[in-house]
Amino acid sequence: MALKGFKAKKRLLWQLLLTAFGFLGLYLYGLRSLRSLEVFIPMGICPRATMPLLRDNFTGVLQHWARPEVLTCTSWAAPIIWDGTFDPQIAEQEARRQNLTIGLTVFAVGRYLEKYLEHFLDSAEQHFMVGQSVVYYVFTDRPEAVPYMTLGQGRVLRVERVQQENRWQDVSMARMRTLHEALGGQLGQEADYVFCLDVDQHFTSNFGPETLADLVAQLHAWHYHWPRWLLPYERDKRSAAALSFGEGDFYYHAALFGGSVAALRKLTAHCALGQQLDRERGVEAIWHDESHLNKFFWLYKPTKVLSPEFCWDLKIGWRTEIHTPRLLWEPKEYTLVRN
């Protein structure tokens, strides 16, 4: 009888495993409607003992109680910024008191320039750090094609030429080296804080000084509910970006990261070196510079994390916890812009 019971339990275990892997296969590669079920995966709860200790340089004490349905802090006591957890007026006043200049960098190479740049810059003028001093840095292979923009008071546009690469992957990976050099030059002298963004997205709501910190990471909209073992880190141990299955905190999006000039110099140097080591070893990380960015944020924890509200993809669909998207992904027309 005991043997039969053991066999029945073993059979049940295999059935559960097969069902789980079948569901996972559909989830990743098949029915997108199944993604709606991920909202039932708990994000965790910020410990009550930690909440009173979490203060932000630009928003004061964060209002964690305003968003009980989501995770509002990390295990290393960094705030995760959601709509309703901060007072934007306090942040704006503090940024003006410090007389800050905020840099915004974007790469518009090849067909990405015509397709996305003008809309990106126009939306930034409407929503990015409104009322603050801003310097835009556009890195492009065709400076003469950058559209003329009428900018608000205290806002400057600078255009820097970069080399066109043979592959889009190389364009993506080269930006860490380029950013590192720029942060060591005029950009680093002009700006106090810098955000580095992808061009194929646009601002839709206020993106203000509540996002500022020494080192800022963005929760990836497609992965913020996923368990750690399922996150798409680089797993090839030959790569400098590799993380083992016991490592990693969240999965961060390379379409948006930022921080102080000193912190970003460290980040870009780490990622550029990791990519160089990979080339020497004949490997390439699965998600290129994003894989190296995630390795960096595992080793050096961000001091502020932005919720998916700050960089959202409408293809995911409606989510109750996404109140006010600040950035929206543009439709990914890779066959048009990468060929």
TrEMBL record:
This protein's UniProt keywords: Glycosyltransferase, Membrane, Signal-anchor, Transferase, Transmembrane, Transmembrane helix
Compartment annotation: Membrane
Pfam families associated with the record: Glyco_transf_6 (PF03414)
Membrane topology: Single-pass type II membrane protein
CDD domains to which the protein is assigned, alphabetical: Glyco_transf_6 (cd02515)
Main location, first listed in the record: membrane
The protein, known as: Alpha-1,3-galactosyltransferase 2 isoform X2
Species of origin: Microtus ochrogaster (Prairie vole)
Primary gene name: A3galt2
